Amino acid sequence: MSGPPGAPGGHEALHLPPPPRDDDVVLHRDLAPVAGAGAVLAIGNFDGVHVGHRALLAHARSRADELAAPLVAVTFFPPAKVLFGDARFLSSEEEKAALLSEAGADGVVILPFDRAFAAQPPEAFAARLAAAAPAMVVVGEDFRFGRDRAGGLDLLRRVAPHLEVVTLELAAGEIAKSTAIRDALARGDVRRAERLLGVPYRVRGPVVTGDRRGRTIGVPTANVATDPRKALPIGVFAVAVDTPGGRFGGMANVGPRPTFPDAPPALEAHLFDVAVDLYERRVTVHLLEFLRPPRRFGSLEELRAQLAHDDRAARAALTERGLVGRHAAAGDSDPA
User: Fold this and answer.
1) Counting beta carbons within 10 angstroms of the beta carbon of residue 266, is it exposed (0 to 12), middle (13 to 18) or buried (19 or more)?
2) For every one of its 336 residues, what pLDDT tens digit does the chain have, with 9 covering 90 and above?
3) Quick check: is 34 in a domain?
4) CA–CA distance from 164 to each of 42, 124, 230 (Å)?
C-alpha cells in the first residue's frame, strides 16, 4: 500500500507485544508507595514512549538488573503542552502505563500534572524525589522540571547522587521527539510515527454503542471511545486490534464520517473474519497502514464498493506484515 505524501515504501515485520491484561501494570499516583524500595527511577515525560524514551528505559533496566533493584518509571499526565497549549497527547494514562511496562518498567508512577503542580518551585519535586530514596535516577539530557522549567541536572545531582543521564536517541537519522510524531500523525503518516515510536501507534478505549449503520451494509464495526485530547490521524487504516479474545486484523475509519456529517468523530474498527461482541469491553487498536483519506459518498452502493476495496487493501497490507487471518485466545504467549 502507498501511504500519504512523504510516507516510506516497503513493509517491515510487525512487532507487537502480546495483548495486554488489566493486571499487567503496577500503577501508582505518588512516589510514596515506592519510597524505601531501593528502586531505580527512570523519570521523564514519556509521551508516546518513543525510541528515545525506550533507550533511556533500556539503560535504566540494565542498571536495575545490575543492582537487583526494581525499575520504576516516573512520569506526568497530561503533558505540559496539552495542559497549557493546544497540543494533543500521544498516550493516555492507561496507554502510557502499558507502554512503560512493555518497555521494561516493573512499576509506573504517573504524577497528576496540573497548574498547581506546574507552579511549584523545582525544589519541591526534588524534595519528593529525595524522600523516595532511590538507588539510582536515570533521566534524559534535556530533562527539566519545576516552575518555568527552572530545575535541571545540577539540582537533581544534589538530591540523587547516583544520577545517570542518557543522550537523545536518533531514529531514522533524526532525534525522536513527541512533536515530530504528532506532526506525522497529523499527515496520516503512521509509518513514520511507527519508526519514531518503535511500535505502531495505538489507541485504547472502551467499545461503545454506535449507530449500527455498519451492520446494515455488512461491515459491522466496534466504535472505540477516545479522549478528545488524544492525537488521532484522520483516514482509513489497516489495523491490528487487541481484544479480550485475542488479536485480530482489520481496518478502521478514524475521524469525521463524511457520508454522515451529523455524526460525531469516531474511531470505528472492523475486524476481519470474526464475530465477537465487544460492547463495554476495552480494546487496543494499532494503526499500521494508511489506506486513504476520508471522503463523502453519494450513495450507500458507492460506499459499499469503496469498503470492499478498502477490505482488500487492508488485507494485503496486513498479509505483508504477517498478521491477517491470525489471532489467539487471551493468554496465549505469541498471538501475533
Assistant:
1) buried
2) 434 433 334 455 677 777 666 567 789 999 999 998 999 999 999 999 999 999 999 999 999 999 999 999 999 999 999 999 989 999 999 999 999 999 999 999 999 999 999 999 999 999 999 999 999 999 999 899 999 999 999 999 999 989 999 987 665 566 788 999 999 999 999 999 999 999 999 999 999 986 556 555 667 889 999 998 999 999 999 999 999 988 999 999 998 766 666 655 689 999 998 888 898 899 999 999 999 998 888 888 899 999 999 999 999 999 998 886 545 443 333 333
3) yes
4) 10, 21, 32
Domain range enclosing 298: 201-320
Same domain for 225 and 163: no
Residue 13 lies in a domain: no
- Nearest to 290, CA basis, from 260, 272, 313, 306: 313
Structurally, how many domains does the chain consist of? 2
Task: Give the three cell numbers for residue 44.
Answer: 521523564
Do residues 79 and 167 both lie within one domain?
A: yes
Same domain assignment for residues 233 and 154: no
